[in-house]
Design a protein that fits this description.
- By secondary structure, the protein is an alpha/beta fold.
- The chain has helices spanning about 10-20, 35-45, 45-55, 75-85, 140-160; strands at about 5-10, 30, 60-65, 90-95, 120, 120-125, 130.
- The chain has one domain (about 5-160): Rossmann fold (3-Layer(aba) Sandwich), CATH 3.40.50.
- The protein has five helices and seven strands, in the order βαβααβαββββα.
- The strands form two sheets. A five-stranded parallel sheet has the order 2-1-3-4-7.
Length: about 160
Amino acid sequence: MKRQVFYSFHYENDVMRVQQIRNIGSLEGNTPVSANDWETLKRSGDIAIKNWIDNQFKYKNCLIVLIGSDTANRKWVKYEIERAWQLGKAVLGIYIHNIKCPRSGTSVRGNNPFSEFTINGNNFSNYVDCYDPNPSDAYNDIRLNIESWIERAIQRRKTA
């Protein structure tokens, strides 16, 4: 069964890596936002961005945070993580620094964006799996495992 997912990532640094993951085809992800559309949305203000994100979560099973070098520091990624959890969505992270970008090659591994949050006094990273694909073939590791990672996240969320 194809799951509906929302991808959270740092657009400027990682859009080319994310496009490769979107093209895997085993998932139905949120429609990509063009750079122009994102800039227009940002000019509309924080409330408009929050409303857009909240709208994107409708009918989604899971939030997948695609973790690049600077993802953990992004304001809207943090909001998406918090909001997804509030809405009862499954959440998981996948490090994408070893996916080759046609412009810049591979990147450095970013920080775990979940380690900044707590739930019931526990670190949020205790509730969320982060996968670090095989550096020699990160794309195929993700392609072969992403569906099972999502199913695991959905099961974990049911018990959290």
